Amino acid sequence: MEFFIDTGDINEIKTAYAWGFVDGVTTNPTLVAKSGKKNEDLIKEIAEIVDGPISAEVIALDAPGMIKEGTELSKIHKNIVIKLPMTKDGMIACKHFSKSGIKTNITLIFSANQALLAAKNGATYVSPFVGRLDDVGQTGMDLIGEIRQIFNNYGFETKILAASLRHSQHVKECAMMGADTATLPFKVIEGLFAHPLTKNGLDQFLADHAKSNK
Ligand code: E4P
Asked: Which of 12, 51, 108, 150 has the fewest beta carbons under 10 Å from its own?
């Protein structure tokens, strides 16, 4: 299973990447705005740190605009994945990029049918937003299971990139459902380390060591 960090914060990326199990980065216009940097500048900076897939989202809403913007972003580095919204124009751009061998991540996926359309158009990743479905009273994790079954039924190679994950339980459930990738905010990654028994156990080991070395 791939782990991406979902952030535009360079310090968070550097810290999490050093832990060794982070494979790539996802950004979105909200995260870029928070960083205070221009999209292209931020993506360049990230590409200098991380050797793995880096999703860079287009702002254009029309297919020609998405293709122009995505093509420019793809020139920044070989690891750039063009993030496109799940819209009719987004699907035209997705088809264009898959024919040109440029990787894509179709974002704002809220139904299995949307994921099916993206997979048919050759998307590299689909990003179902688990937490935002939970927010409106649905069980976001069900969507991961539905997409997994559909992709398995037809042998689609499109990867399920579970997004909008808010806590450790989401991460475990995604892994159990067979999501290929999970993109996680820094705080959620940090939460994966934590278990009270690990801390208690270590405190005890150190206390015993100190006693025996008096
Ligand atoms: C995914 O690519 C998105 O950037 C992200 O996971 C959205 O998460 P949010 O719903 O917490 O904003």
From this structure: 51
